[in-house]
Design a protein that fits this description.
The complex is a heterodimer.
Chain A (H helix, E strand, L loop, with lengths): L4 H35 L17 H8 L1 H33 L6 H9 L6 H11 L6 H8 L14 H11 L2 H12 L3 H9 L4 H30 L2 H7 L12 H11 L3 H29 L7
Helix pairs in contact in A: 1-13, 2-13, 3-4, 3-7, 3-8, 3-10, 3-12, 5-11, 8-10, 10-13, 12-13
Chain B lengths: L1 H26 L12 E3 L15 E7 L7 H15 L4 H4 L2 E8 L1 H13 L6 E6 H7 L7 H5 L10 H5 L2 E2 L2 E2 L2 E13 H6 L13 E2 L5 E2 L3 H11 L1 E2 L15 E7 L5 H9 L16 H15 L7 H6 L11 E7 L18 E4 L13 E8 L6 H12 L2 H6 L3 E2 L5 H12 L10 H5 L16 H17 L5 H16 L3
Parallel strand pairs in B: 2-3, 2-4, 11-12
Antiparallel strand pairs in B: 1-3, 4-14, 5-6, 7-12, 7-13, 7-14, 7-15, 8-9, 10-11
Helix pairs in contact in B: 10-11, 17-18
Classes of the chains: A mainly alpha, B alpha+beta.
Chain lengths: 300, 493
């Protein structure tokens, strides 16, 4: 029996993605199911014989746990500062290294990208020194201008700008993606704009921004998920304590603490499900708003 | 239409799966530059069913990593001891035992052990392990009382108060192996530079102040001389009117690498965060005064480094930086006052006795490492035999930098330390100070168990970070909050 072209295409399509689907089922869906089951128990790995079903008690507890709200607030506060900053800086750097007038563009591209190759733990330890109140370079530079630098990492206020600086330093990947977006903009659009009398700002606003908006959207989604994943820097800086005064108790760090410091795996699994629901909801909301601000040619 | 709807569902499902994948990655810490997924330095051979090796011997697994034990020179000593026990004429072989060593990186050891217990693949012997770490697994440990009474585990020559340290809830969960008394390390060069007399080396001796007066060696005296020893970038000490606390280059005093229960015990005297009923949270009066005392040194006198300075001083190893005059630490600090490559060591130092606490007694908090046997072991007698062998190997305890619990073994330990420091410090360290402090240990260990230990301990550590970073704390209010928090953690999850 001859298969139709559509069916043949479907068959081969599924054949090629079958390994991924299988992997997703075994290594993602199955653990997800297991984590849901664990979230309904009091599982503590130190006492495997004492595991009991607790129904939805962990979910009830989650809604009355002040640290959950606090860790969410910390994450949102940081996201509100870090997301616009990293997205803006990565786009700005991409425009800089895309500028034909910049001498040694490839050198700058490499330099801006290089920090992403440094292990994040090493990066964090380096920045711990750079941001030190007394001996850090940032405060030395500020001091040269007569500005008394803040205690970046031990102040509940300044710790967010401090962590954002670390994030900005590592925007190389986002910069590369933005650069790819910029390079895909047809030069004819700029020529047409110039003929119409558009200046640099008008070209940026009416040509560059709409044309890179799909790439910007992609970077936003990835950065948003990354923010809710935020862990290593906070863990390294505070040895997992969330100092100062829980100002760096990010949601993921709180989850880790419950599971791997206090061995309260049932509750940690519950928090993981909350994290999943939040990230899913934010992603859906962003996708819903996409048609309003992301330029996708005729499909807009 | 229906087809579109089902496609949309599939697409949404796949999108959710992708996001779940992203979240799953988030749960794991990012790898460091050297990938070490399991953290294992040495792993034991797998056992067959019933804890027997393939040739029918009893497999006894020794799990190292919960305390010290993972350094290269330690691995050598541990492996040699295991080989000696397993030799043809070794005590393990004679008893039909095969001793196997498992060593893990300290940061991975706790999770590894918890996972092994969860998967019913737990080791037999764990250790060396400190009191705090022991509390994380305390009720999993075998009661060793009958082995101590039968002298299968040898406690001869160990002070009774040290043996009793490991009686938890009526169970002897370990026996002393290595002890680390605490005392005052002091930088002789900084004392000399400030024109100050060195602190006393014997309990009861007075301290001679700059004006020649003889005063008790207590925490008020420490506070006074710490002011003279704290210096800003313009050379003003903390007694001067022009002293600039924002630009301090040298501090009078630090409490390196300990927490509020440690501070409170040494400054205030013995106490406990748990009332006698075992379930009520408290912060005793002498501990309140002690915390206020330390907070005043941090933010009022500026004679002790706050967190920002601590990070700047040799990455937290403050005494080693050479910019801290006095530092109250344990014997294990001999590990770290010794310089590694490219460090600028403090060369001219010695040790002094603990000052008199605010309750009028001398209290030198004690750290102690032990070995324990998990109650899940199926070969308890064999595990005890192997553990006794390990604990009586002198090379291991020396390589751990630990003062042996057995009095008779201590001389060799201090001789080894003298040899280690000989090149750097021509004057011998007065080690009798360390030994003498064992007579002044706290009545309740400052790392003693608390209900819901891990969470309660974390709550106390939050007080520590608050004190080191926040200049505007009201200590009474903050301690009141801590007691409420502790009562909450004592009561449940």
């Amino acid at each position: 029996m001859m298969l139709t072209l559509a069916r043949r295409e479907s068959f081969w399509g599924f054949a090629f993605i079958a390994p991924w689907i299988l992997g997703a089922l075994v290594f993602t869906l199955l653990p997800m199911g297991a984590s849901f089951v664990i979230s309904l128990t009091n599982f503590d790995p130190r006492y495997p014989d004492a595991v009991q079903s607790v129904g939805f008690a962990n979910y009830q507890r989650m809604f009355s746990d002040p640290l959950v709200l606090q860790s969410l607030a910390v994450t949102v506060k940081f996201a509100a500062l870090m997301l616009p900053l990293t997205l803006g800086v990565s786009l700005g750097l991409a425009m800089l290294v895309n500028n034909p007038k910049l001498l040694g563009r490839n050198v700058f591209r490499t330099l801006f990208y290089m920090p992403t190759q440094i292990p994040i733990v090493a990066t964090t330890l380096i920045w711990q020194g750079v941001l030190n109140l007394h001996t850090g370079w940032v405060n030395y530079v500020l001091g040269a201008f007569g500005i008394a630098g803040p205690d970046w990492l031990n102040s509940t206020v300044w710790v967010y700008p401090g962590l954002s600086l670390i994030s900005v330093w590592g925007t190389g990947t986002m910069m590369l993606i933005a650069l790819a977006g910029l390079q895909s903009i047809p030069t004819e659009l700029y020529e047409a704009a110039r003929i119409d009398g558009a200046g640099k700002w008008a070209q940026f606003r009416n040509v560059t921004l709409p044309m890179v908006s799909p790439v910007f959207f992609y970077n936003l989604i990835i950065a948003l998920i990354g923010t809710f994943q935020y862990f290593t820097q906070a863990y390294v800086l505070t040895n997992g304590r969330g100092d100062p005064d829980n100002a760096t108790l990010f949601f993921n760090l709180n989850l880790y603490r419950e599971g791997w410091r206090y061995y309260d795996m049932g509750y940690a699994a519950t928090l993981a499900w909350l994290l999943f629901v939040i990230v899913l909801a934010l992603t859906v909301i962003l996708f819903r708003t996409r048609s309003r601000w992301v330029f996708e040619g005729a499909a807009r | 239409m229906q087809q579109n709807s089902s496609r949309r569902r599939i697409a949404l499902g796949l999108a959710a799966l992708l996001i779940a994948g992203a979240c799953t990655q988030a749960a794991a810490p990012a790898p460091s530059s050297t990938p070490r997924p399991t953290g294992a330095l040495v792993t034991a051979q797998p056992s067959s069913a019933g804890g027997l090796t393939s040739d029918g011997k009893i497999l006894v697994r020794w799990f190292v990593g919960l305390g010290t034990g993972g350094n290269p020179e330690q691995l050598g000593a541990e492996s040699a001891a295991v080989a000696k026990c397993n030799a043809a004429d070794g005590p393990c072989t004679k008893a039909g035992i095969k001793l196997a060593l498992e060593v893990y990186q300290n940061d991975a050891a706790y999770d590894t052990l918890a996972t092994q217990i969860a998967t019913r693949n737990a080791p037999d012997i764990i250790g060396p392990i400190g009191v705090r770490a022991l509390n994380g697994f305390g009720d999993q440990l075998l009661d060793l009382s009958k082995y101590v009474q039968a002298k299968t585990l040898d406690t001869t020559g160990i002070e009774k108060n040290l043996v009793d340290t490991y009686i938890v809830n009526g169970k002897q969960i370990g026996i002393p192996y290595a002890v680390y008394p605490s005392y005052m390390y002091y930088n002789k060069a900084l004392f000399k530079e400030a024109g100050l007399k060195e602190p006393p080396h014997k309990v009861g001796d007075k301290y001679t102040m700059p004006n020649g007066s003889q005063v008790d060696w207590n925490w008020d005296t420490v506070a006074q001389i710490a002011k003279i020893l704290t210096v800003d970038s313009k050379g003003n000490d903390a007694t001067k009117a022009g002293f600039d606390p924002k630009n301090i280059t040298q501090f009078g005093f630090d409490f390196q690498w300990t927490d509020p229960r440690g501070w409170a015990t040494v400054i205030g005297g013995s106490g406990s965060a748990v009332a006698a009923d075992g379930k009520t949270a408290q912060w005793p009066g002498n501990w309140k005064k002690a915390i206020q005392w330390y907070y005043d040194r941090l933010w009022k006198d500026h004679t002790a480094p706050t967190q920002d300075y601590i990070t700047a001083l040799a990455g937290g190893n403050t005494f080693q930086s050479g910019k801290v005059a006095m530092d109250f630490v344990h014997t294990w600090y001999t590990c770290c006052v010794y310089p590694g490559d490219n460090t600028s060591p403090v060369k001219d130092w010695d040790i002094a006795v603990a000052p008199i606490s605010l309750d009028g007694k001398v209290t030198a908090k004690l750290h102690a490492d032990t070995m324990g046997i998990l109650s899940s072991t199926v070969h308890a007698d064999a595990a005890v035999l192997a553990m006794n062998f390990i604990m009586t190997q002198p090379d291991i305890v020396v390589t751990y930098g630990a003062m042996p619990a057995k009095v008779a073994d201590r001389k060799a330990f201090f001789t080894a330390l003298d040899k280690k420091f000989q090149k750097l410090n021509p004057t011998k360290i007065d080690w009798q100070v360390a030994s003498s402090m064992l007579s002044y240990t706290e009545s309740i260990n400052h790392e003693a168990n608390m209900p819901n230990f891990l969470k309660s301990d974390a709550a106390i550590k939050t007080l520590q970070s608050d004190m080191l970073t926040n200049a505007t704390l009201n200590i009474d209010t903050r301690l009141g909050d801590l007691v409420k928090t502790l009562q909450g953690t004592f009561g449940g999850s």
